Amino acid sequence: INSINSGQCKEMILYIADKIIESEPYLTEIDSKIGDGDHGTGMKRGFSAVKKELPAYMPKDPEDVLKETGTILLDSMGGASGVLFGTVFISGITKRRSKGTLNLNDFAEIFRTSLTSLKQRGKASVGDKTMVDAYEPAVIALEKAVQEGKTLVHGFSEAAKAAQDGVQYTKTVKARFGRAKYFGGKAIGLQDAGATSIWIIFRSMSEWISK
Ligand code: ADP
Ligand code: MG
Ligand code: MG
């Protein structure tokens, strides 16, 4: 496939939800080593709410599916990371006029806009050991695939790989945000939980699109 409609967007989000819920113990373990250990349960709570509420939602267009997903996450997760993950899904679609489907270029534009909002809101840049370390390279990979005229499948596969590399990169840097900041040099060798969630989200989108 080269573009996805509202129904497919919904299915893809529900696929992400299953994968995040499955990853709860892994995310908990990561956030326990370097944070307060609540990231897995927070993400699970958010995506369980998505699984419960999204199926009955009647979207106008695929952008509306993303907006509703972010709204559910924001309402159910609470806290700083609820706002941050809500932003990932909501902020890219405000001010867009939908064509009724999303292609690789649309996804690249949407996620670039939401990355910009996330960075404005959270004040983190690449190298601060946050979700931005996985998200920014994923967006760049989507944009590169657009420029090279690649398929949707290829673009998301590259984005998932870039996010995974971003997670590995978080092991090499100290944190400037959240509780991990107080770990100083002891954070070296440990990966960031939020970046790991971003990787799982992109990997899941890639898996769903290539099936
Ligand atoms: P909390 O830190 O409130 O316990 P979570 O454990 O759910 O929330 O999420 C922590 C993750 O949030 C971190 O691993 C990091 O990726 C992300 N994060 C924290 N602060 C910021 C920020 N200012 N900008 C971007 N991401 C951030
Ligand atoms: Mg935490
Ligand atoms: Mg917390």
UniProtKB/TrEMBL annotation:
Record-listed E.C. numbers: 2.7.1.121
SMART domains for this protein: Dak2 (SM01120)
Domain DhaL intervals: 7-207
A Gene Ontology BP annotation from the UniProt entry: glycerol catabolic process
Pfam name, any one: Dak2
Reactions that this protein is recorded to catalyse: dihydroxyacetone + phosphoenolpyruvate = dihydroxyacetone phosphate + pyruvate
Function in brief: ADP-binding subunit of the dihydroxyacetone kinase, which is responsible for the phosphoenolpyruvate (PEP)-dependent phosphorylation of dihydroxyacetone. DhaL-ADP is converted to DhaL-ATP via a phosphoryl group transfer from DhaM and transmits it to dihydroxyacetone binds to DhaK.
Database matches in NCBIfam families: dha_L_ycgS (TIGR02365)
Assembly: Homodimer. The dihydroxyacetone kinase complex is composed of a homodimer of DhaM, a homodimer of DhaK and the subunit DhaL.
Protein name: phosphoenolpyruvate--glycerone phosphotransferase
Organism in which the protein naturally occurs: Muricomes intestini
